[in-house]
Amino acid sequence: MDNYIVSARKYRPMSFDSVVGQQALTTTLKNAIASEHLAHAYLFCGPRGVGKTTCARIFAKTINCMNRQPDGEACNECESCKSFNEQRSYNIIELDAASNNGVEDIKTLMEQTRIPPQVGKYKVFIIDEVHMLSQAAFNAFLKTLEEPPAHVIFILATTEKQKILPTILSRCQVYDFKRMEIQDIVKHLQGVARQEGYTAEEAALNVIAEKADGGMRDALSIFDQVASFCQGNITYATTIANLNVLDYNYYFRITEYFLENKITETLLTLNDIVNRGFDMGYFITGLAQHFRNLLVARDPQTISLIEASTEIQQQYLAQAQKCKSNFIIRAMKLLNNCDLNFKQSKNKRLLVELTLIEVAQAAQDDDESAGRCPAKILKPIFKLNVQSNASATTTTSTTTRPVQERTQATSAETLTNKAPVNTSANNVKANRFSISGSIKLQRDNGNSTNATGNQAPQKPVPSTPTTNKPLESNQLIMEWNLFAKALPQQETAMAKRLIDLASNLSITSNDNFEVVANNPSVADQLKQYKPAIEHHLRSRLSNANVNMNIRIREIDEKKRAYSRQEQYQNMCSMNPSLRKLRDMLNLDLS
Ligand SMILES: [Zn+2]
Q: Is 134 exposed, middle or buried (CB count within 10 Å of its CB: 0-12, 13-18, 19+)?
């Protein structure tokens, strides 16, 4: 290699169309150029390495092109384009405000705005990291920005939009660059690997893209580093070794141990991970992410939400089949709590080990013994999808509903089965049917399978003409926790409280659920959050009528050990004749 050029420079996009992952934005810019609607100043905001400077350069080249193409791109052939591509154009002047933020730097730059371009129409001034300019420099710049010469266009770039003064913001057209999707980066890296003649495993490129956190420049420099380490044969194993990334296999293996209740192996694996120099906090967030991936892998429709190679997606799909969804949710909750407490913990290792043991136990718990979690009413999380796919009958679904709900539903079903379709004109008749329906129901309770067997196959009841999905315990808890986690940092205390309260949720009807507050002050706090919580749940659970009832825990709910006297009083309140009996027989309490 005689003249090595880093990939980030070598494969820097030359046209708007080749910019990765910012399509909406580049189209807008192209249209603005085509219609000659150019502003005097642009502000490009967004994280590092997502193409801000690249777009600014393409923009400068395109507006100066003498022979613009019909698709709005520069021709790359005219004198102006050539000088841009060979980086000898005088029409583009770049200033990195991170290192040149003094007033003198800006003054020199502003001097140059006075000189009109020799070739082409516009001089473009790119000021990178503009938020780093000193106050005096800002003021000097503002003067020119207020009345710029006609041939001058400013492109300001920043990673921290909130630090830009309003006086500058109001004079700029603002473009927000977004983080790049993992898949976009992987695709681009595949292209680069092809052109360089490297072989690259998709899983390896995924790791690189993840590590780059949505920035292409970082992704390409990591890619270069790995490629030279692997000598052009980029495999998953060498990539994670080179980047010090924890192998996915650790998460898969440890989950297997959970399922098999192998606590010793779990703790030894943790030890192995720590010995390899990985931070335990990093491991816990990784494991939480693993369980989140398992959750979405339970449904083939959501598996695409896993940002990993297809091969690893298949691995998730296979492991998800082995895990009950209530185990996954319990694990997510435990790991999330561990994550929240990690920073404050004085004995981090103990916290992590304890959490792992708890997760392993959650894997062993049957529905009955899942502790505080309302496991009895947990249902398969993607039941609705499954049902519509497999066109399951209502009889199968009723068996999983709580008894009270089931009774109501069965009564409604019996009613519609017997009543003619247009009952509205004949209320009396309908009433009679409802009575006979409920009588029948009482019999049914004894032997329900027989009763349904006697009748024609039941059809789903079109009870109300709404499309609201009935509440599902798993989804409710999941969304509840997601709401809590999305709270801003200053509300961490409330977020923790909400997550703790997730085990106090219970669904009372299709649209209503109840949360039990431990004391009136918690109830007051919940009341403040009620509108926001309902709003979140309504949109996320596709039910516009979701209603949250707050109930304060009654004293006897947590205090169950009555004294004899209390037990007696309690029984009397349930059955007053007990008191009469005691008086009649003249009994004493021992
Ligand atoms: Zn040109």
A: middle
CA of 455 from ligand 1 middle (Å) equals 79
Residue 427 amino acid letter: N
Rounded Cα distance between 1 and 86, Å, is: 21
Annotate 398-455 with three-state secondary structure: HCCCCHHHHHHHHHHHHHHHHCCCCCCCCHHHHHHHHHHHHHHHHHHHHCHHHHHHHC
Asked whether residue 122 is assigned to any structural domain, the reply reads yes
Tokens (6 digits) for 489: 């940092």
27-72 pLDDT, tens digit per residue, is: 999 988 988 889 999 999 998 888 999 999 999 999 999 999 888 8
Q: How far is the CA of 71 from the centre of ligand 1 (A)?
A: 13
Domain check: are 137 and 58 in the same one?
yes
Domain extent for 506: 473-557
- Do 253 and 144 sit in the same domain of this protein? no
Type of residue numbered 343: K
Residue 150: partners with Cβ closer than 8 Å, 6 or more residues away: none
More confident site: 241 or 563: 241
Q: What is the DSSP string of 491-509?
A: GHHHHHHHHHHGGGEEE-S
CB 303 within 8 A of CB 313: yes
**Residue 191 CB partners (closer than 8 Å, separation 6+):** 11
CA–centroid distance, 155 to ligand 1, in Å, is 20
- Whether residues 167 and 298 share a domain: the answer is no
Distance from the CA of 37 to the center of ligand 1, in angstroms?
19
Predicted TM-score (pTM) of this structure: 0.54
Rounded to the nearest angstrom, the distance between the alpha carbon of 112 and the centre of ligand 1 is: 24
Contact 367, 378 (CB under 8 A): yes
* 53 alpha carbon – ligand 1 mean position (Å): 19
Q: How far is CA 479 from the centre of its chain?
A: 11
Residue 152 main-chain phi, psi, to 5 deg: -105, 135
Is there a domain that residue 432 lies in? Answer: no
Cβ-contact 506, 374 below 8 angstroms = yes
CATH code where residue 236 lies: 1.10.8.60
| Residue 389 scores a pLDDT above 80 | no
Taking the C-alpha atoms of residue 574 and residue 587, their distance in angstroms, rounded to an integer, is 19
Smallest CA-to-CA distance from 330 within 503, 556, 98, 575 is with 503
| C-alpha of residue 84 to centroid of ligand 1, in Å | 9
Asked whether residue 114 falls in the same domain as residue 162, the answer is: yes
Q: Which of 126, 148, 176 is the last residue of a domain?
A: 176
Q: Identify whether residues 163 and 294 lie together within a single domain.
A: no
Residues 140 and 214 in one domain: no
Average pLDDT on 80-106 reads 89
